[in-house]
Amino acid sequence: MKMKNLIWSILLVPILIAGCQPAKKTDEEKSAKPNVVVIYMDDLGYGDLSSYGATELQTPNIDAIAEGGIRFTNGYASSATCTPSRYALLTGSYPWRNKDAKILAGSAPLLIGTDQPTLPKMMQANGYHTGVVGKWHLGLGDGALDWNKHITPGPNEVGFDYSYIMAATQDRVPTVFIDNGNVVGVDANDPIEVSYKENFAGQQTGLENPELCRLKWHHGHNGTIVNGIPRIGFMKGGEKAKWVDEEMSGHFLKLAQQYVRDHKSEPFFLYYALQQPHVPRTPNPAFVGKSGMGARGDVILEADWTIGEFMKTMKEEGLLENTLIVFSSDNGPVLNDGYNDDAVEKLGKHKPSGPFRGGKYSLFEAGTRIPFITYWKGKIKPQESDVLVCQMDLMASIAKLIGVEAPKTDSQDMLSALLGESDKGRENLIVEANSKTAFRKGNWIMIPPYEGTPILKQVNIEIGNSKAYQLYNIKEDIDQQNNLATTNPEKLKEMLTEFENIRGK
Ligand code: NG6
Ligand code: CA
């Protein structure tokens, strides 16, 4: 070998070796693809956190996220119930555009079309690993669902590489976990059957055997008894697959932590959907009695602790500086949602709805105005923001964050507001409750006339129905007591016209 070639070879070797090894990510490359974690609660009200004004409950771990990030005071879920809010969060579409986006039975087919754009699909296509842990409630399968076989389509067909879920809610059958489409603990000798129409011969129900229930049903919830708790719907078999309610929170936590550890070296999107404080409220024994407010308070404290543990893992893995964390809830609060669990009796001075009127199921503010926090260590400056934002906007905002074009949906890019770099939010928003809609623009809220009961008696919540138009100035009249529809007809007309332009007549 000539001297010159030898020198070249010596020079080239380290370059070639370096070329074969996976390149270590520079800080710049890392921040170009920050991780995104959505921590999503179920039925947590605006007033349920001490960082949102609660005085009777202390939620230090969620408060720490709020104190280190942005505490939004005008943050909305798109709906006053679970399924439609989650639909909007994951698809960026107003749920009222899809007539099936209502509270789903545990056996309902998948609500999101497999050809529909979704937030996780968008991330997947741009090099992210995507995962969901926790409550799903967006339907599974395509109609003929066999719980004993691989279940598809489901989360894995609409954008999630990894899914570990409960099908619907903690109060609905089947009371089993589903790991990437397969029921955990499924047993061919004890097949699972599920029906929302009729009971299976010989199966005990809350209706016929109330004496077997450790938690008494108040309305609904009188189907199959699992772990002493009567549920919505009927289920047979699957003994080994049934979850232990008191262990659910810890179980989801471990999986969320494991997900983060497994995917820390690649960009990831985690949708961590906790089940608290939805019914049945089944605190782990470590939290029983801790709130003095009964099971509803106890499970909020448990969720707060759980989120603290999750945040510890994020910190230990060095991920906080490179992750946008969004914390929110799918709809407003409810006390008695079908079980006699002392939520009403032990409430004391606590105000789950905060200063707002209504609650879960309501077109009034407390139905959809929920805690909404963004956190990103070192990137987001701690602050409070009164900018109007909706969970539906995460899709377009995250598209901006990761530098891709967002699919065309109702989702609007609010990234600057979510990072605290702008005070410009949505100009308007349509919120939804039980397929009825109301319109917010600026500080005004308009609720069109609706037939139906003004108060949902079973849960004791004003849901917003009235034969007259309702118009409120939410800034001056935070609890919606002064209907200005007749005194300010110009404003009403302006609101109505704009609402109908978006919603259609
Ligand atoms: C209702 C249930 C309620 C709750 C809700 C769904 C009855 C009488 N009430 O139908 O308990 O499960 O559905 O809540 O069955 S959500 O937060 O998932 O939307
Ligand atoms: Ca909910």
TrEMBL record:
<dbReference type="InterPro" id="IPR024607">
    <property type="entry name" value="Sulfatase_CS"/>
</dbReference>
<feature type="domain" description="Sulfatase N-terminal">
    <location>
        <begin position="34"/>
        <end position="404"/>
    </location>
</feature>
<dbReference type="InterPro" id="IPR017850">
    <property type="entry name" value="Alkaline_phosphatase_core_sf"/>
</dbReference>
<dbReference type="GO" id="GO:0016787">
    <property type="term" value="F:hydrolase activity"/>
</dbReference>
<protein>
    <submittedName>
        <fullName>Arylsulfatase</fullName>
    </submittedName>
</protein>
<comment type="similarity">
    <text>Belongs to the sulfatase family.</text>
</comment>
<dbReference type="InterPro" id="IPR000917">
    <property type="entry name" value="Sulfatase_N"/>
</dbReference>
<keyword id="KW-0378">Hydrolase</keyword>
<dbReference type="Pfam" id="PF00884">
    <property type="entry name" value="Sulfatase"/>
</dbReference>
<dbReference type="InterPro" id="IPR052701">
    <property type="entry name" value="GAG_Ulvan_Degrading_Sulfatases"/>
</dbReference>
